[in-house]
Amino acid sequence: MSNVRAEEHSLNPRQFQELCDMVYEITGIVLKESKREMVYRRLMRRIRELNVPSFSEYFQLLKTNDSEELPNFINAITTNLTSFYRESHHFDYLLENFLPEHEKFTGAKRRLRVWSSACSTGEEPYTLSITLNKYFGRQINLWDCKILATDLDTNVLDTSKEGVYKLDRIESLPTKIKKDWFESAEPDYPGHVRVNEILKDIITFKQLNLLNAWPMKGPFDVIFCRNVLIYFDRPTQEAILEKFLKILRPGGALMLGHSESVAKGYSQLDPVGRTTYIKL
């Protein structure tokens, strides 16, 4: 780190607001005053790595045309908190209710499309893959079954694709799931496990900003968008939900996060469980 005065690495109110405006313009995420300390810590890591003398100069770096730092800035700011079987009721619903009904719906087509729209470090799409493999068993090979896993953050996508996790990430999982779907990553990664390659067979990982144009047309049978909408303002939430509804088939399932209730005002969505909705 350069020998600059401490005040040059302070984040004043004007600079913080400028950062908030930039994050909102690029991602639609609304940063509130309560996030100032978090923003400061994360950007200080980037400033130290780059050996930039001050926040002011870091801002100038971000504003440079075709700045290579912009993706790193977005990656640093976006929050990526997840776990295997997080909000497990969604996976229980798929296993016990949705998949049996979908099997009747699709008939001989045997087609299933699932979208994990904010996959973070991969725990969600891999849990989805475990769920589908548990339900279909060896018959999954007879299905046109695919999971699309997307995220804004390119760094977490690299972790997702690798499928390697610290051992403590799976400690709370049932023994059978650990035995069937994970294996030691030793000696390449001491103290880590990797997911069974079978789980990767039906997953495609892609970088996607939910505010930009979506290249996929659907229809999807299931869409997961959990604990993402809370970071957006209401107009952005509504715009994203409308886009979900356009590519979610009638009878398809939408899963939101535990603190998200924005779907209550949508007549097209029928609540069938905790933050679980079926498109009418």
TrEMBL record:
CDD domains: AdoMet_MTases (cd02440)
Keywords, ordered alphabetically: Methyltransferase, S-adenosyl-L-methionine, Transferase
Reaction catalyzed: L-glutamyl-[protein] + S-adenosyl-L-methionine = [protein]-L-glutamate 5-O-methyl ester + S-adenosyl-L-homocysteine
Domain CheR-type methyltransferase, chain residue ranges per copy: 4-280
EC number from the UniProt entry: 2.1.1.80
Function, as annotated: Methylation of the membrane-bound methyl-accepting chemotaxis proteins (MCP) to form gamma-glutamyl methyl ester residues in MCP.
Protein's recorded name: Chemotaxis protein methyltransferase
Source organism (scientific name): Sessilibacter corallicola
